[in-house]
């Protein structure tokens, strides 16, 4: 029996990857949820998933967390700026434990992208390649939930406000990315493959239309300058560092760094990505 491990299993994507593995008839007993806080994982334990402590900052926990694991879903950490060191700990523990394959959640065109988040993913991809462990790179695009998570603010403001202009954004739902991950984890022929994963592209004006349709409100897209965008974030209470970082990401978005014409996601999941309107509706009714 192949043993699978999923890091970041108490996070949003990790939980969905475990759901997708179970839906693909992988037994709960064959899944190890690697989490830094086991108290958050009681629900997983109740479902029969093995829960082990594994903190990217504590190599000793990673060694025991990955013992006996064949196939590792390595979900990138959330502490921007710390991740190359942390991810190096995970890769080294996987190598020492004899893991047979690592699937890693990277970002679109990690090796060439100007995206502010790309350098840590590029460096992690290099560490994985250098480890000699067979890999599958899941270069995920943006989550639609990055936008639908702000539905309440859009409705309050009466508009979607951004500085992305008419750039196309090939975002997809976390559930679609999780399904693609489960496909490559459980399937054959994904060794050393690099997948550029994106959904059906949309511009923010189309996103605003989807919000209008679902909420029966007239919500437009108001494009502002990057400076106005950053000032808006500061006025909303974000600190200078975070506002600057998010403004840089918005500039990346405007430059097309979140777009892809790749069909890899639809090919892996065997269907088109979840339609934008459906994703907005799910957030609206949640
Ligand atoms: N494609 C996109 O649009 C997008 C957007 C945001 C992030 N991301 C990337 O995709 C990853 C997964 O997304 P998500 O939505 O599932 O994020 P999330 O809900 O924040 O999950 C991140 C997971 O990483 C775990 N983690 C963070 N630091 C860790 C450490 N030092 N040791 C062990 N585990 C650690 C967290 O543990 P806890 O549960 O204990 O907090 C959490 O389970 C993110 O971490 C980030 O790298 C992608």
Question: What features would you describe in this structure?
Answer:
By secondary structure, the chain is of the alpha/beta class. It folds into two domains: 137 residues, Rossmann fold (3-Layer(aba) Sandwich), CATH 3.40.50; 107 residues, UDP-galactose 4-epimerase, domain 1, CATH 3.90.25.10. The protein contains 13 helices and nine strands. α1 packs across α8, α3 packs parallel to α4 and α9 crosses α13. The model has no long low-confidence stretch (mean pLDDT 97). Bound molecules: NADP nicotinamide-adenine-dinucleotide phosphate. NADP nicotinamide-adenine-dinucleotide phosphate binds next to α1. The site of NADP nicotinamide-adenine-dinucleotide phosphate (NAP) has 23 residues, from α1. This is NAD(P)H dehydrogenase (Quinone). InterPro entries: NAD(P)-bd_dom_sf (IPR036291), NmrA-like (IPR008030), NmrA-type_oxidoreductase (IPR052718).
Q: How would you sum up this structure in a few lines?
A:
InterPro entries: NAD(P)-bd_dom_sf, NmrA-like, NmrA-type_oxidoreductase. Strand 5, helix 5 (118-131) and strand 6 (135-140) form a beta-alpha-beta unit. The chain is built from 13 helices and nine strands.
Secondary structure blueprint with pairings:
Layout: E1 4-7, H1 12-23, E2 31-35, H2 42-46, E3 50-53, H3 59-65, E4 71-74, H4 83-97, E5 101-107, H5 118-131, E6 135-140, H6 145-148, H7 151-157, E7 159-162, H8 174-186, E8 193-197, H9 204-215, E9 220-223, H10 226-235, H11 240-254, H12 264-269, H13 276-285
Helix pairs in contact: 1-8, 3-4, 4-5, 9-13, 10-11
The structure holds NADP nicotinamide-adenine-dinucleotide phosphate.
Protein name: NAD(P)H dehydrogenase (Quinone)
Organism: Crystallibacter crystallopoietes
Domain NmrA-like: 5-260
């Amino acid at each position: 029996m192949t043993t699978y491990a999923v890091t970041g299993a108490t996070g949003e994507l990790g939980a969905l990857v475990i759901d997708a593995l179970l839906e693909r008839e992988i037994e709960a007993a064959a899944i190890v949820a690697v989490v830094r806080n086991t108290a958050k994982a009681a629900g997983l334990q109740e479902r029969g998933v093995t829960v082990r402590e594994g903190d990217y900052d504590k190599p000793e926990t990673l060694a025991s967390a990955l013992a006996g694991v064949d196939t590792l879903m390595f979900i990138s950490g959330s502490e921007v700026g710390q991740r190359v060191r942390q991810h190096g700990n995970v890769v080294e523990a996987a190598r020492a434990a004899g893991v047979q394959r690592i699937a890693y959640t990277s970002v679109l065109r990690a090796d060439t992208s100007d995206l502010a988040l790309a350098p840590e993913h590029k460096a992690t991809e290099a560490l994985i390649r250098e480890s000699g462990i067979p890999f599958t790179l899941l270069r995920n695009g943006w989550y639609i939930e990055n936008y639908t998570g702000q539905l309440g603010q859009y409705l309050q403001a009466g508009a979607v406000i951004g500085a992305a202009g008419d750039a196309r954004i090939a975002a997809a739902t976390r559930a679609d990315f999780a399904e693609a991950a489960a496909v490559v984890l459980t399937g054959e022929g994904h060794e050393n493959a690099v997948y550029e994963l994106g959904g059906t592209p949309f511009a923010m004006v189309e996103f605003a239309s989807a919000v209008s349709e679902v909420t029966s409100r007239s919500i437009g897209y108001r494009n502002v300058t990057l400076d106005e965008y950053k000032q808006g974030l500061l006025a909303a209470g974000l600190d200078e560092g975070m506002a600057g970082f998010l403004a840089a990401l918005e500039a990346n978005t405007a430059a097309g760094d979140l777009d892809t014409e790749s069909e890899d996601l639809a090919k892996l999941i065997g269907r088109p990505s979840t339609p934008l309107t459906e994703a907005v509706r799910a957030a609206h009714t949640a």
